[in-house]
Amino acid sequence: MTMTMANRISDPDNGPSPEQIRRGRRTAILLFVIGFGPMVFATIMFYTGWLNPSGHTNNGELISPVVPVQQLQLETRDGTPLAERFGPEQADSQWLLMVVAGDCAGPCQELLYLARQVNIALGKNANRVARAAALGSVPAELSERWSTEYNLMERLVPAPGTTPAWPAGIDPEAEPRILLVDPFGNVMMHYGTDHTGKDMLKDLKHLLKISQIG
Question: What is the dihedral of CA 207, 49, 185, 25, to 10 degrees?
């Protein structure tokens, strides 16, 4: 019996060798870099302008540091946490335009319309961006129009017993905003009624161009 055979017999578990474990880890890291590296790189480029030949500057207002969407403590009407839709493990995560407001009066309704029209204007990339709204109250006339005008805009509510922790400078009760959430679940930018559809569309087209995820 050779020494190799003896070793195999004396080691009934015959588990992976240290070299096999190291090789497996290297493979896992490589797969992660290939799959998610471009998105991380694109985010760095967007925030810093590094290696950006077009010299693009954002039109929306950056949220720095970014805020994880979990902090908002929002969920769908069936009780599904919004945060579950985002992250590197989600194969079909999207960018999200989210209108937030207290009483959805005139300015809020302007932003609902703006988000819808910008999403449509993305054309073939429209399905890479979802829309949602977290609204304190909705006038009766808007409720009546919702199913026909905003049927693709999902309604969100605070999780039971919680109050959304909005990013610094965001107060939906005082001023409605559109929040932009990236596919990793980072609330990264916001827009108001002082922004135009052209402003938002330019930002989104740029982000979708450099993003390999979402």
Answer: 110
